[in-house]
Specification:
Hypothetical Protein Yqey, Chain: A, domain1; mainly alpha; single chain; 7 helices; Arc Repressor Mutant, subunit A; globular
């Protein structure tokens, strides 16, 4: 069993004992999502797979917050944004943008001239430590600068 999943379960139990209902609901949903992922995999999830579940949860909440902001429901948007902050606390340390930029430049020097080739070379290096959108934006900037 992954140590990140164990941490999530321990924090869920702590929030139950503290009667922190919003945090309990949030962590309960994430733990359930991880368990569903384990059922799909038919084995225990690795830390990397738990991070994927967390990222999906964060993405879903960011999209919800955006929709609530557009609908002028600021209290619901604020709740979603607070949940995003809690979940981001469980993610590993994020990669520095300059570190990503260096890896992108290296991939371009090694012959990657299309966005797909650059992403294919760089993304595996930052799995779980960088958002694909961030890597894509940096790659597009660097490719535009090369032309």
């Amino acid at each position: 069993m992954s140590t990140l999943f164990q941490t999530l379960q321990q924090d869920l139990n702590s929030s139950r004992k503290a009667q922190d209902k919003p945090r309990t609901l949030l962590l309960g949903m994430i733990v359930a999502d991880v368990k569903n992922r384990q059922i799909e995999l038919r084995r225990d999830a690795t830390d990397e797979e738990v991070v994927d579940v967390l990222r999906k949860g964060i993405k879903r909440r960011k999209e919800s917050a955006e929709a609530y902001d557009k609908a002028d429901r600021s209290e619901l948007a604020a709740r979603e944004k607070a949940e995003v902050l809690i979940l981001e606390g469980y993610l590993p340390q994020q990669a520095d943008p300059e570190e990503i930029r260096t890896a992108v430049r290296t991939a371009i020097q090694n012959g990657a001239t299309q966005i797909g080739a650059v992403m294919g070379a760089v993304l595996p290096q930052f799995k779980g430590r960088a958002d694909g959108g961030t890597v894509s934006a940096i790659a597009r900037e660097e490719l535009a600068g090369k032309q």
